[in-house]
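Supplementary Text 2. Reproducibility record for the structural model of the 214-residue chain.

All settings were left at their defaults, and a single model was retained for analysis rather than an ensemble. We include the record here because the model underlies the residue-level annotations in Supplementary Table 4.
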Amino acid sequence: MALLNVSMCSKIPNPSRQHLSLSGYPPPQVLIKTQSEASRNLALQIGESVCKAGLIAALSASLFAANPALAYIGGGPYGSEVTRGQDLTGKDFSGLTLVKQDFKTSILRQANFHAAKLLGASFFDADLTGADLSDADLRGADFSLANVTKVNLSNANLEGAFTTGNTSFKGSTITGADFTDVPLRDDQREYLCKIADGVNPTTGNETRETLFCK
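Retained model, structure tokens:
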């Protein structure tokens, strides 16, 4: 399709312009011819624009057909792999830089995010059951509606992370985790305070203090 458009566009002629007489007052037949050619030039310019638009559309369609992942990469830098709405059970992301990566609604059970840089990443409505997020940088990450049960959050930095909705931390390990400025429901905070201990090695903050435990 792209080759056909290129061929069609290349066949559009480019007529030369007619010059007026030196006197500045062309005879009527020349004036009529000039006006006719001006109209023709305008039509040709419109035709060229249409061809170019068609060529761009064809190239884009062929690109996405060749590699569907390029059409939707989840809004993050993890190569061209789709990470949103995917089953990524047991996937190893340890130590990777995944700033603002989009994991919305994905299944991430037993996934390994140890020491990964996940600033601003989205885990909205994702299933992280049994995942390893120890030593991960989770500042500003979105855990809204996420299932964070039985997750290893040891020494993780969750400063400014979002946990609104029904985010569940039941059975998770939070030793040394930093929850500074994380909005939590009273029942979430009460549960986490029962298991909170340790000091975050990066920020130096005690886990219980970041949770405002009594």
